[in-house]
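FIELD: query
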Amino acid sequence: MAEKLTLSQLRFLTLESQGLTKSTPFGKGKEAVLKAIEQLGYLQIDTLSIIERAHHHTLWTRIPDYRTEYLDELVEERKVFEYWFHAASYLPIKYFRFALPQMLEVKQNEKHHYNADKKVMKYVLDTIRTEGPKKARDFQNEAKKAGSWWNWKPTKIALERLFLQGDLMISSRNGMQKTYDLTENVLPKSINTTLPTNHEFAEYLVKTYLRAYGFTTIKQITHLKAGKEIRKNVDDVLASMLEEGTIEQVNIENFPSVFVNKISLEKSFKKPNLNIHILSPFDNSIIHRDRVKQFFDFDYKIECYTPKEKRQYGYFCLPILFGDIFIGRVDCKAHRKEKQFELIHLHIENQTIDVEIWAKPFAEVLRKFVAFNGCESLKLAKVSPSKLASILNKTIKNIEK
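FIELD: result
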């Protein structure tokens, strides 16, 4: 067992691994987007558009000159692909083979929730094979023709089933409109398509989490990965890496032990720069809510799926990270027609840090965030506690001038 790390050192390690301690951790431009996705392991796709969608927001947080078309271009260049990690995600195409076990599981599962009609699946495959890549709406138009024996919904289910079982891939996107093509037409010939062994898959998970978070726990590695077999394989991989000396099991006072790359322990730890980030609810750094609560003392959940009368903070609250401390969250909405970005309710929960220290950098990040969301003006509707409203309103107005 290695010497103990302090909680502050552990926080720095994970924020640095997540690309949240420097202004340009992955460089600039489209190349930085690929580096970021390879470092983070995956990038969750989200359909909600109250503000700019989560996959774009997460990248913008780490890449100041990020442009939304970069992701679409990387898909078309076959450098990233879409599939499931724990949710719909962009993944580095070099790790394609590690999606194969799930594809095989879907293919063999007759009771999958996308239980498509086999005749419709064959029709969809034959149509794409004969006519080329198709969008879901292409089949919708066909279904409206007189004499059609099927309607749009079965073909949409068939598309999703064929995608999840690996017969189809998403070859391009236009916003949230996906184009499907045969996997053999999309996947580069150089990509390894050998089904990984259980041990190889567990090793992929362990190394992905260690790289992306700096440290990890068994609970995080097996998050949403059901079955005793995956836990056993992860345990075996960790035991092997401990024996090799590539990782160490580290104690943090009053916390469960964690696994850390040995090379990470040899670096000099420092206090994070006092950067401020307005994070997406689906940002990789906070997606594991228990982990954030345990190691950052921040209890966060998104409330858009919670009935209005039961919401504590608001429909779409974004966590606010200052240095290595979550100081609060803000419920936001981009009114795109009016080009106004509204802070519906700004909740400042950590008041041990003087507002004078973080107000100006927060306002500066807000100004950039407003522009990223295609807006020009900013409205701060409500602040809690209310005593902070005056200084925050004043600081924001000064930055806007």
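FIELD: remark
Residues 146-150 have pLDDT under 50 and may be disordered.
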